[in-house]
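Reminder: ligand-aware prediction takes two inputs, not one.
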Amino acid sequence: EWKKEVIVRDEIDKYLIDGKDFIDEEKIHTQIANGKNPDPEYIRQILQKSLSIKTLAPEETAALLNVESPELWDEINEAALLVKKKVYDNRIVFFAPLYCSNLCVNNCEYCGFREENCDEKRRILTQDEIRKETESVIDEGHKRLILVFGEHPRSDVDYMVDTINTVYSVYRDAPVSGREANIRRVNINAAPMSSAKLKRLKDAGIGTYQVFQETYHHETYSKVHPANTLKGDYRWRLYALHRAMDAGLDDVAIGALFGLYDWRFEVMGLLYHTIDLENRFGVGPHTISFPRITPASGSSLSNNLPHQVSDEDFKKLVAVLRLSVPTAGLIVTAREQPELKKEVINLGCTQTDASTRIGIGAYSDQKTEEDLDKKQFTIGDPRDLDDVIGEVAEMGYISSFCTAGYRCGRTGETIMGMLSHCVEGKFCKLNAVLTFREYLNDYASPKTKAIGEELILKEIAEIEAEPYFSSRPHLMEKFRAEYKDILLGKRDLYL
Ligand code: SF4
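Here is what comes back for the chain with iron/sulfur cluster:
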């Protein structure tokens, strides 16, 4: 009965054109085939278009995906990094995922949480446990959390709203300075839902709503998501973020699970998804994720993947996504090994997680992933936040915990417009410095603090020398005052 009520057919049909969705497989295959042996001059023109911060046309992305010459890939990678610097400067945004339950009514072939895998260890966190998990995550130094829910009547929208309220209510004293600390932005990764339920999430104050299509290839989608499950409905999922936009949630995040089907096709699917959102709502996705499938407990599929993506192809897909959708944040997760994460940060990734625990209750239990025999996937980078922040600071990247945009109304179309004119990046640079300053004072180990202090001074010198800022004396005055106030112990100051 519960399952029957979840899918609202009208909320799919209203987005179809002539009964079709926006993934035209034949067209995508033809575009990929026609893009073979691209003229290097054409590729350079595409790079210039990307550098002017414009979403690429599918034919242009298809041409990039077909480049074979290593020299041309060097040019592509260089352009990808330049695009990232233009839009996002040299900052990396950090977040932590919090898995609230591993109860799920679906049976996705690749997932350790699927219903058939069910045993007595499956559970949902109580609000008291959510509070404890949040305390542990805050104690690491995080300010941004993504709550992950399985699809199940026990983790319905009422539970989600309670959980969001619980997370926002937790305050802690930071371990080094004793200053007050809390989670300032809660994002949600949850199953597709109706506009009415999405409005409730918006009212609860979420930041981004994230739904991954997993694979854009219809047949593969049907193979790995049994038809008798809720997730078996491809289009209910495909239009989840359209419904979110209609419900007023204008920060949405898309993603594909790479390894289920051809990686070039999935990149095209992500681009078509972006273009459809941009055409209908004037704004594309806030972020794009591209996790690669990894072994999950009890999943037969993990060992039988003809489309597994190699490290080399993974780097290519990151660079092509960076160029194809210049304004979207790109997320590389702790599924990947530290060395590869470093490489793709230099190809355009802008966000990552750290100190990640994917078991239910694993942050407060201090359980390692090896202790947990039922998990959704395996992680490649179990390091603490402090270690990762130290590493990216050595690479010249400033860690940001900024949540200002969302709280100042710089979301959706507003933020995307600012990003495409490379203006939001300027605000973010200031806010990144302020939140990094907080982190260094409140949480950093002596080693990370030493590296961070050097970097932050360099950043401030760059800000002082930047014409955009010197022509805005009031903004600079406020920035200098807030930086000083943070050193004196004030917190949560932003621009
Ligand atoms: Fe459930 Fe998500 Fe796992 Fe599918 S991938 S079984 S929907 S938790």
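The radius of gyration is 22 Å. Residues 104, 106, 108, 111, 113-114, 150-151, 231, 376 surround iron/sulfur cluster (CB under 6 Å). We will return to this case in the review session.
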